[in-house]
């Protein structure tokens, strides 16, 4: 969808929302300082209520110029990922078409310092809603409050639309960041409710994030009185290279039993700590990123790492994809798994692609056990994205 399409949709929505206001004014209403247009970025939010009422009582209807100004401040984005998966191992085989994600989000630049974002997955549930406020004149300090991705690991904050593998994140990131494979934490899509401080220094070469979060996941209140503290540091020494270290300290509250950690019961609180260190390099010809991860849930330690990359045979059009991934879910019980991915992706339109990949695992999980036997899968996915 191009810019004209976005503006048309936004203008239509704003016209619908502003119609009751216009009708109320026609019936006779006093204008106050709250009617100040969003174009006046010099007025701080907290000052709006302190301004005296305007003397003039002239009826004002929303004009096309005002609506256009609001439309320029609201940006719509969206993407969908759907495909086909064939899987076979010693226990079962399956083949199915599936829709993995259908997301639409809008971000509003309310003032030059204040912004808001809302994201919904129509294949799942509300994913993110938060507000950002830039405290400093430069990019040194922002405050974010709401529901958003946690900062743990190199991969978790990244969008699935730029990840090379159809499975998206590595086994370690999926398990340790709350993306869904840890039954104790549940399916949280790597997101949580909380507060974040972040910013950039040294001409954007240094980036930091410090988060205080519930540790319970999305769309739910905390189930214990402890908060998770998550930190992230990024160093960008040269163009395309990003070195990342992250950590998480907190206490979890188990929502289900886990075959990886059977000593923890449902509704039990437990210590939950994580660490990671990795690097990402991107260029026109090839991309590569890798990471070492470690976690501890009560007394159980997990550990792993991965290397994933792509080589552009036709830059911007056709890439070969490869990944090696190792993760041990429970080091005391030797619940280790090796995973290999090989395939290609074709960018048939900007931000839109077709992917085909073969995935091999040396182990898989059923509802009741961890099985050390081969698992094979063939996956195909089409991605459509605008903005």
State the gist of this model:
This protein has 387 residues and is mostly beta strands. It has three helices and 18 strands.
Describe the overall structure.
The chain is mainly beta and 387 residues long. The chain folds into two domains: 3-62, no CATH class; 70-386, Porin (Beta Barrel). Helices cover 10% and strands 49% of the residues. It has three helices and 18 strands. It has helices spanning 3-26, 64-73, 171-176, and strands spanning 74-89, 93-109, 114-121, 126-134, 142-149, 191-201, 206-213, 228-235, 241-253, 269-282, 286-297, 300-314, 318-328, 336-349, 352-361, 364-365, 370-371, 375-386. The strands form two sheets. A 16-stranded antiparallel β-barrel has the order 1-2-3-4-5-6-7-8-9-10-11-12-13-14-15-18. It has a two-stranded antiparallel sheet with strand order 16-17. Helix 1 (3-26) crosses helix 2 (64-73). The longest helix is centred in the N-terminal third of the chain and has 24 residues, at 3-26. The protein is globular, with a radius of gyration of 24 Å.
């Amino acid at each position: 969808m191009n810019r004209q399409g976005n503006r048309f949709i936004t203008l239509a929505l704003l016209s619908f929302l502003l119609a009751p206001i216009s009708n109320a004014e026609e019936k006779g209403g006093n204008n106050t300082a709250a009617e100040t247009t969003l174009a006046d970025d010099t007025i701080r939010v907290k000052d709006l209520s302190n301004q005296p009422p305007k003397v003039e009582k002239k009826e004002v209807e929303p004009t096309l110029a005002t609506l256009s100004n609001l439309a320029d401040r609201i940006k719509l984005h969206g993407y969908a990922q759907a495909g086909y998966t064939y899987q076979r191992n010693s226990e079962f085989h399956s083949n199915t078409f599936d829709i993995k994600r259908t997301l639409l989000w809008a971000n509003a630049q309310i003032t030059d310092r204040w912004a808001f974002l809302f994201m919904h997955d129509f294949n799942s549930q509300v994913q993110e809603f938060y507000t950002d406020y830039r405290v400093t004149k430069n990019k040194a300090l922002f405050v974010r409050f709401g529901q958003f991705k946690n900062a743990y690991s190199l991969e978790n904050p990244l969008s699935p639309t730029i990840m090379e593998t159809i499975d998206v994140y590595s086994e370690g990131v999926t398990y340790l960041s709350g993306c869904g494979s840890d039954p104790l934490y549940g399916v949280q899509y790597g997101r949580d409710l909380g507060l974040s401080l972040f910013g950039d220094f040294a001409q954007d070469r240094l980036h930091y994030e410090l988060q205080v979060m519930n540790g319970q996941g999305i769309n739910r209140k905390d189930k214990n009185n402890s908060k998770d503290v998550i930190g992230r540091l990024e160093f960008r020494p040269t163009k395309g290279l990003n070195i990342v270290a992250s950590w998480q300290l907190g206490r979890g509250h188990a929502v289900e039993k886990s075959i990886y950690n059977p000593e923890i019961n449902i509704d039990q609180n437990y210590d939950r700590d994580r660490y990671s260190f990795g690097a990402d390099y991107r260029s026109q010809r090839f991309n590569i990123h890798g990471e070492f991860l470690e976690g501890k849930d009560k007394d159980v330690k997990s550990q792993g790492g991965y290397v994933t990359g792509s080589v552009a045979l036709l830059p911007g059009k056709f890439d070969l994809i490869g990944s090696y991934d190792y993760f041990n879910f429970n080091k005391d019980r030797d619940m280790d798994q090796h995973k290999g991915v090989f395939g290609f992706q074709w960018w048939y339109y900007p931000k839109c692609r077709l992917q085909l990949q073969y995935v091999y695992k040396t182990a898989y999980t059923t509802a009741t056990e961890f099985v050390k036997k081969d698992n094979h899968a063939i996956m195909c996915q089409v991605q459509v994205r605008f903005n």
